[in-house]
Design goal:
There is one protein chain. By secondary structure, the protein is mostly helical. The chain has a single domain (8-77), classed as 434 Repressor (Amino-terminal Domain) (Orthogonal Bundle). 65% of the residues lie in helices and 0% in strands. It has 5 helices and no strands. Helix 1 (8-23) packs across helix 5 (68-79) and helix 2 crosses helix 3 (39-46). The N and C termini lie close together (7 Å). Residues 17-71 form the HTH cro/C1-type domain. This is Transcriptional regulator with XRE-family HTH domain. One of its GO terms (molecular function) is DNA binding. InterPro entries: Cro/C1-type_HTH (IPR001387), Lambda_DNA-bd_dom_sf (IPR010982). Pfam families: HTH_3.
C-alpha cells in the first residue's frame, strides 16, 4: 500500500472534510480560530499537504459540530471497492 499523503484515498477523505467545513458554514480562517491554529493548518490538511492524526480529526469534527463516525462511514462508502496498487 502506498503511503503518500497525496494518495487517492486521502484525497477523498480531505474532500469530505472540506465538505463538512462548508456544511458547517465555516471558512478556513474561522475553523482555524476555533482550533487555535493558523489558517495554513486547515489549508494544508484540506489540500492533502498534511495528514491528520485521529485526535486532530476528532478535534476538527468537534469544532465543526459534525459526527466523526458519519464522516468515516462516508469515506468508507466513497472508497468502497477502491484498491491502491
Amino acid at each position: 500500500m502506498k503511503k503518500s499523503v497525496y494518495s487517492q484515498p486521502y484525497s477523498v477523505f480531505a474532500a469530505l472534510l472540506v465538505g463538512a467545513r462548508k456544511k458547517a458554514g465555516m471558512r478556513q480562517i474561522e475553523l482555524a480560530h476555533k482550533l487555535n491554529k493558523p489558517q495554513s493548518f486547515v489549508s494544508k490538511f484540506e489540500c492533502g499537504e498534511r495528514r491528520l492524526d485521529v485526535i486532530e480529526f476528532l478535534t476538527i469534527m468537534d469544532a465543526l459540530g459534525g459526527d466523526p463516525l458519519a464522516l468515516i462511514a462516508e469515506t468508507s462508502k466513497a472508497l468502497h471497492g477502491y484498491q491502491e496498487c
